[in-house]
Design a protein that fits this description.
The structure holds 2 protein chains of 2 kinds.
Chain A (H helix, E strand, L loop, with lengths): L26 H5 L15 E7 L5 E7 L1 H5 L3 E6 L7 E2 L12 E2 L5 E2 L5 E7 L2 H10 L1 E6 L6 H4 L14 E9 L2 H7 L2 E9 L11 E7 L4 E6 L4 H12 L6 E5 L14 H12 L5 E4 L2 H7 L5 E10 L5 E13 L5 H10 L1 H4 L4 E10 L13 H18 L4 H8 L5 E2 L5 E2 L4 H12 L1 H4 L8 E11 L11 E7 L5 E5 L8 H13 L6 E5 L16 H27 L7 E4 L2 E4 L5 E4 H8 L8 E7 L19 E13 L4 E12 L6 H20 L5 E2 L2 E2 L17 E7 L21 H13 L10 H15 L1
Parallel strand pairs in A: 1-14, 12-13, 16-17, 22-23, 29-32
Antiparallel strand pairs in A: 1-7, 2-6, 2-8, 3-7, 4-5, 9-17, 10-15, 11-12, 11-14, 15-16, 18-19, 20-28, 21-22, 21-27, 24-25, 25-26, 28-29, 30-31
Helix pairs in contact in A: 9-11, 11-19, 15-16, 16-17, 18-19
Chain B lengths: L1 E6 L2 E6 L6 H8 L18 E4 L2 E4 L12 E3 L12 H8 L9 H14 L5 H8 L10 H16 L1
Parallel strand pairs in B: 1-5
Antiparallel strand pairs in B: 1-2, 3-4, 3-5
Helix pairs in contact in B: 2-5
Classes of the chains: A alpha+beta, B alpha+beta.
């Protein structure tokens, strides 16, 4: 056996890829415009599909006449509710079956402006648009209700059958907060408004559906964060077997929570294709439809009351959350739960009572958006904590350090926190930003500095009883390795990170790996890209898959060399002896052996991982929802122009417990993207409605962060080496967005002494608050 | 109507109705789907291409109006297998996340750097302000543009 391995064509600088900033696996495709998104799918004879949408916020459907549209040349198919099974779909069916409340095509009633009434497929866009105009809908218009506090009043128009339009009441109760409030030295009560943001990914929702008429199988090419979830909803609403539905996730042009569910357009593309004899149907939402008819962040009224001791000890918290759910439930129940229960990961609190109400209105549908309720609670709780600290004259950081959770503890609601770098994050952020020199000391130049802290899960059982992920690691004869994962890369870089994990586990160079992800027919099951779960859960599956493939190779090597498999390992492209690292043979040689005349052994590693969690009991709020928890602290420095009310963010510091950075550059990318999104939410992202109509359904009216004015961002990676994580890693796609608005509001308070309780922080609000403050002095 | 133009250095004669945007011609007629659109109303920048070295929005440009002009799309930047320096640094700096904005972002960057390879930070921000990126929050894009400028100046 040769002792010096022949240099493999696969050996590159990323021979030990975990922990290195490996460039994106699809980088060359993206920068050359060759990567194909669902938006780019072109097929012969492909039809253009369009949805007919309600112009009324609340109305009964009397009749729909499609005859004129059907007679239009070029129209190939039209569907209305009578062509469907009228089966409802939703996203929290496992825990909250009664919240499954939306039909792909509504049959009796429309509940918001944009609700789907019919769909058409035609040879081109003009014909499809003309067909929509020719469909005659007769409505009986019903009174609508658009404000949370109006919708819950007795006698308000009933949108569904829920009493007082309350789709869901979630009580979270621990200890005896009333008694503890009486023992408190200081009690503070605050009411916050958290406005409606929209995910607005650059690629709008788009799909191509095709129905094989003779075999009765469907394929949907989609822009999805959760292709397996989409498959489940399609199969259910179309009454098909799960495996007759294939969802192929193309490259996804961003999701941010908005692409977690099947939308009526996905259903319609498939059914229209059936009616059109199997021709593929492409439906691409316009930007206006994207803003008005997909999923948006819940607007929330967040009331919180806290009792503390003079020394800063948190005694009790009570509160109430009212969420504007819009017309249907979507992921609303879990968003509401997350908005109330994240606090247990952050603060040691034993006495807690909060009740959440998810309220139907005739506004567009609220659902998941990056942060899952945590952006709203992050703003409310972290602003409130600064106010509480101020009441007792305590520094906000000292107050937090006194009350935060510790490593290796069980929270009052039975979350098991193991590694917990929150304290380290706060200390590192404090040092990096120069907190002690700046806090409270820059008012003369109208500068201020503020902190917010947060924690996040990595995974959550939302629509199934398990949330396992699988991986297949197929090592080919030519030395290339295919990683098949069900995880959906939507731009966060999971294809790259999971490939790094699989390569490291197998002991080979990153360049060997090719990644195929998110195809329900050929990749293993995965619940999708949400809850910051992919690196942790899908990563563990990739780790197990890589290890399994390695063991299969070592089995052959051991056998052929009369050695024990326990004495061998594969590391950095070499088969070595475990005890002294001595080289036995190169990886390529080992592979030659596996695929030799003598052995002919295919190497197909498999991994399956289901995190060690307990289901949340939603009657009490108890449960260990995640297999691990991530933490972070964020500091923002601002400068306020008191003449114009403009707040300028000067610099941001984000210290993040990510367990271990599989790809530091990607981690920074997630943090920077989150911070930008947080800046947007704080200052201008505000989807506004009037009588259910969206007033700013475009990028001119709904401003998102642009390049001018982005502050300097500093990412501080705190590695706590999570035992349960793949190579120690935790998930981290959302946490950095959670405390941003509060950190900014707290910095504004430090700079000019005014407290903003309602987002967004606009110049008008700053000026108004300054005026009120000066009147107080008089 | 007949429209003569050059796309990625290739001369073409197109038979058009006359109401097609350049974006539609690129994507639908020529299958050059690297150029994207996210709004179709000149707000997002994902449809940016270059006409005679200047970045323009193809979603609001009539194809009939670019008679006899040289158009460069994202597909035309690399020379064979060799990426344009801007493409290369976008990969190296981790500027790419979902990638949907990237073709437009790269075209705006190339148009800037060809005129001015050493832009100030303010000039970079100004040049890219029409290109929305929803994923990356811009720092890694800024880094890449400055770095690419240095590389372009050297070569």
């Amino acid at each position: 056996m040769a002792l010096t391995p022949k240099k493999s064509k696969f050996v590159d600088e990323y021979v030990d890829p975990v922990g290195k900033s490996v460039p994106r696996i699809e980088g060359r495709g993206i920068v050359t415009g060759q990567t194909k998104y669902a938006f780019d799918v072109q097929m012969a004879n492909m039809l253009v599909g369009k949805m007919l949408r309600s112009h009324h916020a609340h109305a009964r459907i009397i009749s729909i006449d499609t005859s004129k549209a059907e007679a239009l040349p070029g129209v190939k198919a039209i569907i209305t509710a009578k062509d469907t099974f009228q089966i409802k779909f939703g996203s929290n069916e496992y825990f909250f079956p009664h919240t499954v409340d939306q039909m792909a095509i509504e049959a009796d009633k429309v509940r918001y402006i944009g609700d789907e009434l019919a769909a058409v497929a035609a040879v081109d866009e003009e014909t499809a648009d003309e067909a929509l105009r020719l469909i005659d809908v007769k409505y009986e218009i019903l009174p609508g209700v658009f404000e949370i506090e109006e919708a819950i009043k007795p006698g308000a128009p009933a949108i569904h059958e829920a009493l007082n339009n309350i789709a869901l009441i979630l009580p979270v109760n621990f200890g005896n907060p009333e008694r503890l409030m009486k023992e408190a030295d200081s009690v503070r009560e605050t009411k916050f408004w958290c406005p409606v943001a929209h995910p607005s990914p650059m690629e709008p929702h788009v799909c191509v559906g095709q129905w094989e008429t003779f075999t009765n199988k469907i394929t949907l090419w989609s822009s999805s964060q959760a292709p397996f979830k989409c498959r489940e909803s399609l199969a259910k609403t179309l009454k098909m077997d799960l495996n007759d539905v294939r969802v192929i996730k193309m490259a996804v042009g961003g999701g941010f929570g908005g692409k977690l569910e099947m939308l009526p357009m996905d259903f319609a593309a498939c059914l229209l294709s059936k009616k059109a004899g199997g021709l593929p149907v492409k439906i691409c939402l316009t930007r206006e439809e994207e803003f008005t008819t997909t999923r948006r962040k819940h607007g929330m009224i967040y009331k919180v009351k806290t009792g503390v001791k003079k020394d800063g000890t948190l005694l009790a918290i009570t509160g109430e959350v009212l969420a504007d759910g819009g017309a249907y439930c979507s992921y609303g129940p879990t968003v509401l739960a997350a908005a109330m229960m994240r606090i247990f990961m952050v603060y040691k609190i034993q006495h807690f009572r909060m009740t959440g109400y998810r309220v139907y209105t005739n506004n567009p549908i609220s659902g998941a958006m990056r942060g899952f309720g945590g952006v709203q609670s992050g703003f409310a709780i972290e602003s409130h904590m600064d106010m509480v600290a101020k009441d007792i004259g305590m520094d906000p950081i000292e107050f937090r350090l006194k009350n935060i959770t510790d490593p290796n503890m069980v929270t009052v609601n039975k979350m098991i926190l193991t590694t917990n770098g929150l304290r380290e994050c706060i200390e590192k952020a404090r040092k990096a930003c120069g907190w002690d020199e700046k806090r409270g000391k820059q008012q003369h130049i109208k500068r201020g500095i503020g902190i917010g802290i947060a924690a996040d899960v990595m995974g959550s059982k939302m629509y199934k009883s398990h949330e396992s992920a699988g991986a297949i690691v197929k090592v080919e004869e030519d030395g290339s390795v295919y990683l098949f994962t069900g995880a959906a890369d939507t731009g966060q870089g999971s294809n790259t990170a999971l490939s790094q994990i699989a390569a490291q586990a197998l002991g080979v160079s990153f360049s060997r790996i090719k990644c195929k992800s998110g195809d329900t027919e050929i990749t293993p099951f995965d619940t999708g890209s949400f809850a910051s779960r992919v690196t942790f859960i899908s990563g563990n599956a990739a780790l197990l898959g890589g290890k399994d493939a390695k063991m299969q190779i070592l089995e052959i090597v051991a056998k052929d060399n009369n050695l024990s498999i326990d004495d061998l390992d594969i590391k950095a492209e070499k088969v070595i002896f475990k005890n002294d690292g001595r080289l036995l043979m190169s990886f390529d040689k080992a592979l030659d052996l596996c695929y030799s005349f003598k052995y002919g052994k295919q190497i197909i590693g498999r991994g399956s991982y289901n995190p060690k969690t307990t289901p949340i009991d939603f009657r009490s709020g108890e449960g260990n929802v995640s297999g691990s928890y991530g933490f972070e602290a964020q500091v923002v420095e601002v400068e306020v122009d008191t003449d114009t009310g403009v707040v300028k963010v000067l610099e941001m510091w984000d210290a993040h417990d990510i367990g271990k950075a599989i790809n530091p550059q990607s981690v920074e990318g997630q943090i920077e993207g989150s911070l930008a999104m947080g800046v947007g939410y704080t200052f201008y992202e505000d989807l506004r409605f009037k009588n259910g109509r969206v007033l700013n359904a475009n990028f001119a009216g709904y401003r998102v962060p642009r390049s001018i004015g982005m502050p300097k961002m500093n990412s501080i990676l705190v590695e706590t080496d999570e035992l349960e994580g793949p190579f120690g890693a935790k998930g981290m796609g959302e946490a950095a967005l959670l405390p941003t608005a509060a950190a900014i509001a707290n910095a504004v308070e430090d700079a000019i002494g005014v407290r903003i309780l309602e987002l967004p922080i606009t110049p008008e609000k700053i000026i108004k608050a300054l005026k009120e403050k000066s009147l107080e002095k008089i | 109507m007949e429209v003569n133009l050059a796309i990625n250095k290739k001369p073409l004669t197109l038979n058009l109705k006359g109401n097609e945007t350049l974006l539609e011609v690129l994507r639908d007629n020529l299958s050059l789907t690297g150029t994207k659109t996210a709004c179709q109303e000149s707000e997002c920048g994902t449809c940016t291409v270059m006409i005679n070295g200047k970045a323009i929005l193809s979603c609001i440009t009539l194809a009939a109006n670019v008679q006899n002009q040289a158009i460069t799309t994202i597909e035309g930047l690399a020379e064979g297998d060799v990426l344009h320096p801007v493409q290369q640094v976008f990969i190296e700096h981790g500027s790419v996340q979902c990638g949907f904005c990237i073709p437009g972002m790269i075209m705006s960057s190339v148009a800037l750097l060809e005129k001015n390879p050493t832009p100030t930070q303010a000039e970079v921000e100004y040049a890219l302000d029409g290109n929305i990126c929803r994923c990356a929050g811009y720092p890694k894009i800024f880094e890449a543009v400055h770095d690419a400028g240095k590389k372009m100046k050297k070569s």
